[in-house]
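User: Predict the structure for this protein chain, please.
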Amino acid sequence: MTINELLQDSTRQLPPPTPRLEAEILLAHALQVSRTYLYAHADKLLSAQEVARFRGLMAQRLLGKPVAYLVGEKEFWSLTLQVNELTLIPRPETELLVEAALARLPVDSKDVVIDLGTGSGAIALAIASERQQCQIIATDVSLAALEIAQQNAKNLHLAQIKFLQSHWFSNLIGTRAFVIISNPPYIAEDDLYLEQNELRYEPQDALISGIDGLDALRHIIQHAPFYLENSGWLLVEHGYNQGERVAQLFEQHNYIQITTHHDLAGLPRITAGKMVNERILH
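Assistant: Here is the predicted structure, written as structure tokens:
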């Protein structure tokens, strides 16, 4: 088969919304070439071994395994990140969380930023790439995830990030930050969304957070004031149907200037709040 014939055949097999794109990514990975190469050599005949290698990837994809895990990488904020089954796959909507944080950090900021539950390091690395003088602390309870995040930082030559094993704030005693940012687990235990094929492959402890999905968010919102500088900001990602409840949690813990940011679909996705920290003022 030629490259073009194989792509056409596989595109018909893959589910929407982006079957052609997925087929190109998988074939480029199988051949160890760029997607541009596929277009430039569309009539190239492939060997039986090359076709078999691609078919193997396709078989796993059709069972639901995410493309990012099959190729071992995912683009986020124009950065190419290594990922595997030990880390959550960075999602486009999380870029809104990065945008909201950057809006609160001047270009020449030297502030401390804490990224809670960093996973592959996506959020911390995106901020580091834009605010190179900031001091960034990226935490995760998983040492395996931290190893991946550290490798991503090394690959991207972003050296101003300190990686720390910590269950949320457990190893951050005495640390203060101007911005604390987190994309914690926020799916309820019985949410039917968890039955989707792709999610079965992702680390469940990075997805599920109690009966209503808010356990981690409650903990972070309650304890963040102890780690925020005066007038510092907490920004969290949450489910599209959790915006009102998350904003209420911010209000209960005396944050001000509480703001909800909506994603491209118009759904509430990010909530931010400022803390006038009386523990520091007095």
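DSSP finds eleven helices and nine strands in the chain.
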